[in-house]
Specification:
Helix content is 36%, strand content 34%. By secondary structure, the protein is of the alpha+beta class. The chain has 2 domains: 2-175, 3-Layer(aba) Sandwich (Protein Transport Mog1p, Chain A); 184-216. The protein has a 7-stranded antiparallel β-sheet, with helices on both faces. Strand 4 and strand 5 form a beta hairpin. The termini are far apart.
Length: 216
Amino acid sequence: MKKLFLSIIPVLLAVSGFCQELQPVKLDNDVTVSLFPGYQKKDTLNQSTYSANALDGYMIVIRQANAKDNTPLKKASDLNKALKTYVKGIQAESENSVAENVRDTIVGQLKAKVFTLKTDNGGDVTLRDFLLLYTQDVTYTFEYVYTDNTAAYAKKEGKAFFSSIRLGQDMIWTDQYQSRATGLSSINKLEIFGAGALVLVLVIVLVTRKKKPALG
């Protein structure tokens, strides 16, 4: 038992050391994330890709500028549809892959989508944890890759990675979609209430006529 405990100590220290060595990396004026030292950056047309090795996996961050003529999303439901489309697109890129545990989360004041892409390569299972963050101007993809053999320790590294994402204070929901309005518009409500009031008046008039005694 003592030998087992001693064998675990180096692993715990390694994970602790990893968390301490994470260094903030500024993706732009709005978003910062912490990566393992020695990360690499590759710039292509409208896209910057950051990659870094970790103890039990590796990290990938993609900053993709959206098209200038990108149609603004109007409502939260439009944002949800857009994020679902991204998830399906990522899943379609890899054969024998399934998107699991797809759910919503909040980063700062913005809504994001998280999920795990599980790829079975004939016994060798690769797991890729994703966090997708969409804004009108830029789409951010945060990814942590590991195998099922290292999942127990990799989850801790991944949590430290995703928890390090920081947004500028001026980034709010309007950076993702235009309106929080739900249901009927003010004009439609006025039309309905006005029609209801008119019907009520007509009912009162009819009832009054019925109660009025006939002249003999």
